[in-house]
Amino acid sequence: MLEVKNVAKRFGSLVAVRDVSLSVAKGELRAVIGPNGAGKTTFFNLISGFFAPTAGTIAFDGQDITALPAHRRVALGIARTFQITEIFPELTLFENVRIGAEVADGYRLRPWISRAERARISRHVEETLELAGLGPKSGRLVGELAHGDQRAAEIAMALALRPRLLLLDEPTAGMGDQETYAITQLIRRLHRGGNLTIVLIEHDMRVVFHLADRITVLDQGTFLADGTPEEIARNEAVQAAYLGSAA
């Protein structure tokens, strides 16, 4: 589904990502982890088209997308969330998700749509909200929701785009235990029942080892390790990167 080969990203003299490769199979749930400053979000920005790589190639479902802008990648089936929640707080939850649904159905530049088209979009929004466990709150302003529900709302907005590859950037950031559990269960439901390939960045190792099929580790912008959760837990280089060379 996703094939990243030897990508690099340079900002002047700073090399944020250096010669990183990643292969993700269809239906896989892959975690990308690493210490602060490891280049994880920059790597996501390369995959999603927010940054153009300085070197290397990126392919999605067999198609080279290295030069495609972000909106073209969305149209192909790539959606993402962000480390800092990106929502429209002054709109209701239903309206937030409807924006994604209208984009997915090609209505984003149309000033008027028919009653039948609007009804179809509304059904898609309602189904997406139910999938995300947010159906009863659809009429609430997103800015009034708890932090965990706002994160779930952002995931719902991404799901409304009908992605085949979902990129989640620290989906449990800033959450307490109960909110973390709810988002973890949501991701598990999406993976098992949504026919989705998921790649997530996450600092909470409980979440990573609970969810991931495989884990890729970055450190200082470079590839450090890749393997199953059991293999990564035993990897001495990963332990040193997180705990220091004395680990």
Considering the chains and any ligands shown, give keywords for the structure:
single chain, alpha/beta, six-stranded mixed beta sheet, 10 strands, 24% strand
Could you characterize the architecture of this molecule?
With 247 residues, the chain is α/β, with parallel strands linked by helices. The protein has helices at residues 40-48, 70-76, 93-104, 115-131, 147-159, 177-193, 205-211, 229-234, 236-243, and strands at residues 2-11, 14-24, 29-33, 55-60, 63-64, 78-80, 165-169, 197-201, 214-219, 222-227. The strands form two sheets. It has a six-stranded mixed beta sheet, with helices on both faces. Helix 3 crosses helix 4 (115-131). The model has no long low-confidence stretch (mean pLDDT 91).
Short synopsis of the structure:
Helices cover 39% and strands 24% of the residues.
